[in-house]
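step=predict obj=Glutamine synthetase family protein n=446
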Amino acid sequence: MTTPHPLDQWLDEHHITEVECLIPDMTGLARGKIVPRNKYRPSEGLRLPEAVLALTVTGDYPDEDFTSTADPDMRLIPDPKSVRLVPWANEPTAQIIHDCVAFDGTPAELSPRNVLKRILKLYDVAGLKAVVAPEMEFYLVQVQPDEDIPLSPPVGRTGRTEAGRQSFSIDAVNEYDDIFDVIYDWCEAQGLALDTLIHEMGTAQMEINLDHGDPLELADQVFLFKRTVREVAIRNKMYATFMAKPMQGQPGSAMHIHQSVIDKETGHNIFSNADGSPSDAFLHYIGGLQRYLPPAMPFFAPYVNSYRRLSRYTSAPINLSWGYDNRTCGLRVPHSGPEARRVENRLPGVDVNPYLAIAASLACGLLGMRERLQPSEPLSGSAYEQPHQLPRHLDDAIEMLSRCEPLAELFGEHFVKAYAAIKDAEYREFFDVISPWERRYLLLHV
């Protein structure tokens, strides 16, 4: 007699009629299959073409094949810890994140979730456990199907759009109470550990933070959170956008990543010495971020639009300065007690794939600890007055990533080559588009 799979009991207890079998693709979007409950066999998994992992954001492929030319399937194996109800479904529906593996059981190299697992295994082998806490900014905007028309802030409960910027305004958040009440309810139903909600600097720009915890669990939560917020907004006749720079004249949207490292044997934060002072590991970690974040930028700024955010004029990082409670720096160390000492990586836009952004940040810090890299001196003034130290465009960032052997070793050479090719294909497709600015100012004037 075969032992029932633990998921079968959960699905039966919740009277599930359909199962959404999800995998995060390179952009961080959900792909997969929807399967009737009576056809879903958790112990067997299911199949999906491997080429799904090589898609660009436009649904195309890079010129070079990074999966087999035979276009084979891969297996999707459910992660029982990821099962959740779909709160907006009309019938009892489950969503389960699946891992991508070959038919011999080896992890699929191009799976972003597997890449994060690969980095976390390196921490585990070293006797360490990483802890992260993401902060996600996003805009609510009016529904606008015409891509040529700029986005506008939505109408709130008063029947008006926001006037100017309303940083940290409670009343401005209350304009969208109906939306946030549902977001909190649906996130609670999915076990997404939301912390605080604030109104950010931009017009109808919000920030929601997640509680700190295991990096893989937090990446899963960001993946599902974005999906949830989009669904709530659409049902309220709005869009929620996670573009890094969706509107001219408004700040960009980030996904700041707070990170610390725990000694698995003692349970103590290795960023602090016994006397509470910053440890060598803490400084080496920051040194690794300073050394390796520039070539890792395609994971933190994955699209052409991402680089519009990284400007000294938009309150976003432009360099790798670090400082204590200094928000102008790309790397900020918040005030805290010794056991909560952490580094906040402020470079990522909220347009990132959360699995890859978290993996890249942890990888850079790990390299710093391995190589015992020393950081610069902490900055107390404005980092916006310091020189620009980051790639200015996606094509420059791709080239830097392609030359960085230490990151290729940690992520897997095949993955880095494929990711760079996908980003290059997206950049070339964008470069073919002639913008309204060019037609307006160049058409008859040059």
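step=describe
The chain has two domains: 7-108, 120-413.
step=end
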